[in-house]
Amino acid sequence: MFPFSFNHIALSVKDVNESIEFYQKVLHLIEIKNTASESKTRWLSLNEGKQLHLIPRPNSEIKTNKAVHFALTTSDLDSFITNLKELQIDYSDWLDKPNKVYIRKDGIKQIYFQDPNGYWIEINDDVQ
């Protein structure tokens, strides 16, 4: 078995500035230096050395569905939901019920919302 650990997720985005603003405002992510190149790709820290890379592709078609998402965990899901409401960002449960929290069989609560490019983001309370 190979000893892998998660490094980063990369997303194609129509407008990198709009996406940076969204992730900073909604998830409070901090922009970090793109050390790989001098391109217009911008990086955000997901903490613990993990990163979100936003790659500008203004002329590319972006297709998404809820099954393709990335998930972040918080110890205070209720406060995060309040934040989404204040920002007027719609969220839903796994079954697409608006403004509902989904409770998995294992008791973990989760919600889903989309970024400006339609990518799905799950926020859950699976804090270990």
From TrEMBL:
Organism: Lacinutrix iliipiscaria
Name the UniProt record assigns to this protein: VOC family protein
Signal peptide, first to last residue: none
Lineage: superkingdom: Bacteria
InterPro entries assigned: Fosfomycin_Res_Enzymes (IPR051332), Glyas_Bleomycin-R_OHBP_Dase (IPR029068), Glyas_Fos-R_dOase_dom (IPR004360), VOC_core (IPR037523)
Chain segments annotated as coiled-coil in the UniProt record: none
VOC domain boundaries: 5-126
Pfam families on file: Glyoxalase
